[in-house]
Amino acid sequence: MELNEALFQFCLRRGDDTHVLSHRLGEWCGHGPVLEEDMALTNRALDLLGQARNYLQYAGQVEGKGRSEDDLAYLRNERGYVNCKLVEQPNGDYAHTIAKCFLFDAWHLPFLKAQLDSKDEQLAAIAGKAVKEATYHLRHSSEWMVRFGDGTEESHQRAQQALHDLWTFTGELFETDEVYTTLQQAGIVPDLGPIKEAFDRTVNEVLAEATLKRPEDEFMASGGRKGQHTEHLGHMLGEMQFLQRAHPGAQW
């Protein structure tokens, strides 16, 4: 695979991860359990949206076909999205949303820290800004996992069920393919081994404090990086892309 094509695909993946999760968290706006959390999730969604813009804008530049960040965000169909399946899962209750964020954050922060050393200056710069935001995100979701797990009987049960439902999507975060190995050999993306170790360490420490049980590593869902998604993404895109589809080229 040519390096340029691999870089384009990687930027799409990272842009889609952050964009889809941003939209999911934005769905909580006005529906948070308390005002402070309503604002916290909205701010997190905006952080992720900013990261998505950076990745998709760079993807458009790398592709060289004149597509803007908006074109890539709103004018691709479901099979054209290459986000991991974890981020597209419905919000569910608040424990489910927090568990999804926690699992993503436990991977995202060490990945960004490693990306700081990328030989691609643009990717390193994106990580330089995003790592500060991801540090807060992980702290926020970790504290809530402990609060839920070590709280009431019901909050513990809901958090444990959320982990059980979402764990199958974590394996995809550490998959490699031709896109990834091409970039890794060029020093553009990091080795996933140390990132998996950091993920395991964070998950084990937080779940132990939360008195929650780590699910077994059994079947792991995959395919998101190839455009193979759960039924949830199509429904979400129908809402997310409506304005651009209904009024092509609309500008504020």
Topology:
Elements: H1 3-26, H2 35-63, H3 69-74, H4 85-88, H5 94-115, H6 121-149, H7 153-166, H8 178-185, H9 192-209, H10 231-240, H11 242-246
Helix pairs in contact: 1-2, 1-8, 2-6, 5-6, 5-7, 5-9, 6-7
SSE succession:
HHHHHHHHHHH
Major sheet, described briefly?
none
Task: Flag low-confidence runs.
Answer: none
CATH level 3 topology: Ferritin
Provide an overview of this structure:
The chain is mostly helical and 252 residues long. The chain has one domain (3-246): Up-down Bundle (Ferritin), CATH 1.20.1260. It contains 11 helices and no strands. The longest helix is centred in the first third of the chain and has 29 residues, at 35-63. The termini are far apart. The model has no long low-confidence stretch (mean pLDDT 95).
Short description:
Helix content is 67%, strand content 0%.
Which terms would index this structure?
single chain; 252 residues; mainly alpha; Ferritin; 11 helices; 0% strand
